[in-house]
Write a structure and sequence with these properties.
Layout lengths: L2 H5 L28 H14 L8 H41 L4 E5 L2 E4 L5 E7 L3 E8 L5 E10 L2 E7 L12 E10 L8 E15 L2 E6 L2 E4 L3 E4 L1
Antiparallel strand pairs: 1-8, 1-11, 2-7, 3-6, 3-8, 4-5, 4-7, 8-9, 9-10
């Protein structure tokens, strides 16, 4: 910091401190940044060493005080925002952990064969459409094509018995599906697919929670319902 510039009545440009864990403590992350305590100290130094015959004019003094006030407000806002983000992440993580062992509905295109019970395939159509469901095994091979016929706009479902195109019951496990929908005038219709399953565990990464469901990882924001 050039002290002579302070004594001559001029101040360096004021920046918000960028140090982590020390905002508002006068710490700086670079030689050109000032914390609020640094700024106040320099202002006092300037007042002590000003020329009595040429004192700082009121306009300049008020401008420097305004800069100090603005810097303090920015640092306080930054601290409040950081606290709010941490609190939100903590709440989301707690909510994710509470879902372990529960059945959820979420955005996704996974279906599981377990025992002899039919597997529910659920989807939402933007408009009335003729629907075809394509089911793939873990290697990406097409194992079942289902012509579901004409269906109405909104949420629909199909109970799959777990059989392939030859009528053989497929092994238990995780399968993926794709829904194609075409209107009466051969125009593609938008489709949103869902998955149902029990949450087996939770993984945290970069403050985000991911639920393990049916061999897939589901973001907490993709959960649509809990049963």
């Amino acid at each position: 910091m050039n002290t002579s510039s302070v004594l001559n009545g001029s101040f360096p440009t004021i920046h918000q401190s960028q140090s982590s864990g020390a905002t508002g403590k006068g710490k700086t992350s670079g030689t050109n940044s000032l914390g609020k305590e640094d700024f106040l100290s320099l202002l006092v130094t300037q007042l002590k060493h000003q020329n009595p015959l040429e004192p700082m004019n009121n306009q300049e003094f008020i401008a420097q005080l305004t800069s100090f006030s603005s810097l303090e407000q920015l640092e306080n806002m930054s601290q409040q925002l950081s606290t709010s983000v941490l609190l939100q992440q903590s709440q989301n993580n707690a909510a994710a952990v509470s879902l372990v062992g529960k059945e959820i509905k979420a955005l996704g295109s996974v279906v599981e064969i377990s025992g002899s019970s039919p597997s529910n395939i659920s989807y939402e159509l933007q408009n009335n459409a003729n629907v075809t469901i394509l089911i793939y095994d873990g290697d990406g091979n097409l194992v079942k094509t289902i012509n579901a016929g004409n269906q109405s706009a909104g949420e629909n479902s199909f109970a799959w018995d777990g059989g392939d195109d030859s009528g053989e019951h497929l092994p238990e496990g995780i399968y993926t599906y794709e829904v194609t929908a075409v209107s009466s005038d051969e125009v593609s219709v938008g489709v949103k697919t869902f998955l149902f399953g029990t949450v087996k565990g939770v993984r945290f990464e970069n403050g985000n929670a991911f639920l393990s469901v049916g061999g897939e990882e589901i973001g907490l924001l993709d959960v649509l319902g809990v049963f």
